[in-house]
Each structure stands twice: as structure tokens, then as C-alpha cells.
Design goal:
330 residues, Quinone Oxidoreductase, Chain A, domain 1, 25% helix, globular, binds NADPH dihydro-nicotinamide-adenine-dinucleotide phosphate, transmembrane, membrane, ADH-like_C
Length: 330
């Protein structure tokens, strides 16, 4: 079966040459295992971290071994009592067209309740990240102002909508006018800022947030975030969810100047890792599914087609080529 391995650890921005296509044998099925045919593969910015060997909250990928990420697959053979041929499952699986997996590493997903790809986004890891990051650390209150960066992406587009459900003034930051239009007209954000065409981001934040910023949901880090933090309110909360603008940096950043703003505002800034909230995942999925069913949440996806497009789809995340969740359909 075709497999995608990590060939080299990217230096700076990853390249197609960091990936290697090989073919490998499919193992023989043992008791408690299933044979899977990959249907959808999730590509995610956090995979960049696993491609380097720096210490992190999750093990680095090994060189010349398959990359793994969120995958939806169809069961095509089963030696498991829990799964039958034809079932669809989600799991953290290898970038392979076909593979054998242990039954306890998989969760059944129901294609009659939602499109399969949704289980990688709104009803999967990125939806949970939006919901739990915002509620557990952001602690939003009705009437407050929420700013979200990476606002047109998988996590950000859901964060903003949950902010609206909870009664906040919501401002999104994204990389194009088209994305800014989308978050306002499709997802109900109150204001949007295109960071690529805005000269003075701090002024733009001040204008979009006349009452200051109470919650900042940070997906991008770097200069954009610094501009937001200059406008934070007393007892504000920042969710450090992602920092995509600096994932490819090869040098340590210069010192930042936001600390005085955090101090004088008694402002909280806390890192968030979705895997640390595993006990809250089932309730989170239930809430997201309910809002989705009630029509209170909408989502969009960018779907690439074909196994061979997986590495490029991953690279495209760093160019902002996606709207909503980026997935690859096989
Ligand atoms: P997205 O769907 O948001 O895709 C990435 C987006 O980032 C791009 O579309 C692009 O949008 C933006 N971007 C790329 N480069 C830059 C840059 N240099 N400066 C500013 N924006 C940039 O991805 P996800 O929703 O999956 O993830 C969003 C963030 O959340 C990531 O940082 C990710 O690592 C993090 N994350 C963290 C988790 C956790 O547990 N902590 C779990 C899941 C995600 P644009 O055109 O607007 O620039």
C-alpha cells in the first residue's frame, strides 16, 4: 500500500522534499484488529511541531516512518467483535491508503449523522479545541469582547461562532478580504481585520473593539498577537492555542514588549493543549453536535482530492490556502 514517510526534518518552512512516498506491505490481521481503507486525512498545523525533534507535549515523528494524523477510514476486514466490515471509524492513523489497526485505537463515526469529514473538524479535534479552549481558559461572559486570530481557519471559525452564541462582541483576524467577508457574512462575526492589508494592527483592534479586549483566542502568535495584547482589558484572558506564524522560525524570537500590559491588567495568559482535556471531550462533542443540529454552528472545509496531495495540502496551511478545515479525500 502507498505510504507517506517523513524523509527529513524541515528546516524553516517545510518542503515537498521532506516527504517520501513508498509502498509497504499490509500486515496480516490478528484477533482484535481491523483492516482499514483510508477515506479522509486531516492535515494540521501542529504536525509541523512533530516533524522537528524539539521536546514537546507529543513525541516527534521518526524519520523514514509514516506520518500520523487524524484519519477517517472504512473497515474492509475485521477480526474485532466491536467493528464490522462497512463501518466507518476515526483514529490517529498512518498516512497510508490501507492499514491494520487495533480496535481500541478507533472510534466509530456515523455517516448518517454528519458528513464523514466533519468528524475531523467541527465534530473532531478542531471543534473540540475551539470549544474547550474558549470555555476552559477564555471563560467568556455575555457582553464581553472576543478577538480570535486565524479566524477563517478550522479552529478560529468555530471559536468566533461560539462567541456569538454566548453573546459576545466578536472580532476576527484573517489573511485576506475574502476570508474577512466570509467570517462576517457566513459565520456572524461582528468585525473582521485583514492583517495583510492593515498597516497599524493595534489601531485596527482599538477601532474594532471599542470596549477593549476581554478574551483573546490566539491561533497565530507573533506580531499579530502583540498588537491585540496592547488592547487587553483588566482581568482579560488569552488562550494560547496556536502560534502558526512562528512555527517555521529558525531563530528564537526577539524579546516581546507585551508584559507590562499583562501586568497592569492582571491579565491571564495560558497555553492550551487539547489532549490535556480528554475527560471533557465527550461532553464537548455532544455540545458541538447539538449546536450544529440546531443550526447555530456552521462550518466550511477545503477538501483536496487524492492520496498524493496530502503533503501539499499540509504545506498549503502555511500559505493560508484553506478556508475552514483542510482535509484530503481519498
Ligand atoms: P487553520 O485551519 O487555521 O489553518 C491555518 C491558518 O493559519 C491558515 O489558513 C492561515 O490563514 C493562517 N496562517 C498561516 N500562516 C500564518 C502566519 N504567518 N500568520 C498568521 N496566520 C497564518 O488551522 P487549525 O484551525 O487547524 O489550527 C489553528 C491553530 O490552532 C494552529 O496554530 C494550530 O497549531 C493550533 N491548534 C492547537 C491545538 C491545541 O491543542 N493547542 C489543536 C488544534 C490546533 P490566513 O489566511 O488567515 O493567514
Amino acid at each position: 500500500t502507498r505510504t507517506i514517510n517523513l524523509k527529513s526534518r524541515p528546516k524553516g518552512t517545510p518542503n515537498l522534499s521532506d516527504f517520501d512516498f513508498t509502498t509497504s506491505e499490509v500486515k496480516e490481521l490478528q484477533k482484535g484488529e481491523v483492516l482499514l481503507q483510508t477515506t479522509y486525512v486531516s492535515v494540521d498545523p501542529y504536525l509541523r511541531g512533530r516533524m522537528s525533534d524539539a521536546k514537546s507535549y507529543i513525541e516527534p515523528f521518526e524519520l523514514n516512518k509514516p506520518i500520523v494524523s487524524g484519519v477517517i477510514a472504512k473497515i474492509i476486514d475485521s477480526k474485532s467483535d466491536n467493528f464490522s466490515v462497512g463501518d466507518f471509524v476515526s483514529g490517529v492513523l498512518e498516512w497510508k491508503e490501507t492499514q491494520v489497526a487495533k480496535e481500541d485505537s478507533l472510534k466509530k463515526v456515523d455517516p448518517s449523522k454528519a458528513p464523514l469529514s466533519a468528524y475531523l473538524g467541527i465534530l473532531g479535534m478542531t471543534g473540540l479545541t475551539a470549544y474547550l479552549g474558549l470555555t476552559e481558559i477564555g471563560k467568556p461572559k455575555e457582553g464581553e469582547t472576543l478577538v480570535v486570530s486565524g479566524a477563517a481557519g478550522a479552529v478560529g471559525s468555530i471559536v468566533g461562532q461560539i462567541g456569538k452564541i454566548l453573546g459576545l462582541h466578536v472580532v476576527g483576524i484573517a489573511g485576506s478580504d475574502e476570508k474577512v467577508d466570509m467570517i462576517k457574512s457566513d459565520f456572524g462575526f461582528d468585525k473582521g481585520i485583514n492583517y495583510n492589508t492593515t498597516e497599524n494592527m493595534t489601531q485596527a483592534i482599538a477601532k474594532a473593539c471599542p470596549n477593549g479586549v476581554d478574551v483573546y483566542f490566539d491561533n497565530v502568535g507573533g506580531e499579530i498577537s502583540e498588537a491585540v495584547l496592547f488592547k487587553i482589558n483588566k482581568f482579560s484572558r488569552t488562550v494560547n492555542c496556536g502560534a502558526i506564524s512562528v512555527y517555521n522560525n529558525t531563530e528564537l524570537p526577539k524579546s516581546t514588549s507585551v508584559q507590562p500590559f499583562l501586568i497592569k491588567n492582571s491579565s491571564l495568559m495560558q497555553g492550551f493543549v487539547i489532549f490535556d482535556y480528554a475527560d471533557k471531550h465527550p461532553a464537548g462533542i455532544k455540545q458541538l453536535a447539538k449546536w450544529l443540529q440546531e443550526g447555530k454552528l456552521e462550518y466550511t472545509e477545503t477538501i483536496q482530492e487524492g492520496f498524493e496531495t496530502i503533503p501539499q495540502a499540509f504545506l498549503d496551511l502555511f500559505e493560508g490556502k484553506n478556508k475552514g478545515k483542510m482535509v484530503v479525500k481519498l
